[in-house]
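To whoever is on call:

I kicked off a structure prediction for a single chain this morning and the downstream step that reads the tokens threw a length-mismatch warning. I double-checked the sequence; it's 161 residues and nothing unusual in it as far as I can see. Pasting both halves so you can look.
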Amino acid sequence: MKKISTSSVLMIALAGTLALAGCKKPEEPAAPAATSTPAPAPAPMNEPAPAMPALSVTSVTVGNTAAADKSVAPVATLAGNDKILVSVKTDGTASNANLAAKLVYQDGQVAGEQTAMLNTSGAETTNIEFSKASPWPAGKYRAEVTLDGQPAGMPQEFEVK
């Protein structure tokens, strides 16, 4: 058997270490100081303007008098000679939106129907008034509201005595 001297083993180990050190990935140089001019901003894209929020009905109230700010205190029972106010609060933006209120008597017949055209860009209250020369028939009624032909807000029930 052939003997390997200690110096030969050390030489082989040193050669291996140097070989591995030569294979090591070089470190990346540090980024240069920011002395160049900034890159130009990307060209703007031709995107459509953001859509305005659609108009929505936020509440429906039935009463018989309106305050200066158009608010109507809810009333569950009205007298036959009272005018009936259907107060509709809306929020959003609309141009020529069709707001309609309909009074439906307990037997299903329409007791009255009114419309209003809305042009708005925020919160607004619209009061639609129903009145009759003769007293309203006693019974239960329901006020239904539509916005551009679609049901909107919660129908409100009230009674005429």
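Update from on-call: the warning came from a stale cache, not from the record. Cleared it. Sanity check on the structure: Residues 6-23 form the longest helix (18 residues).
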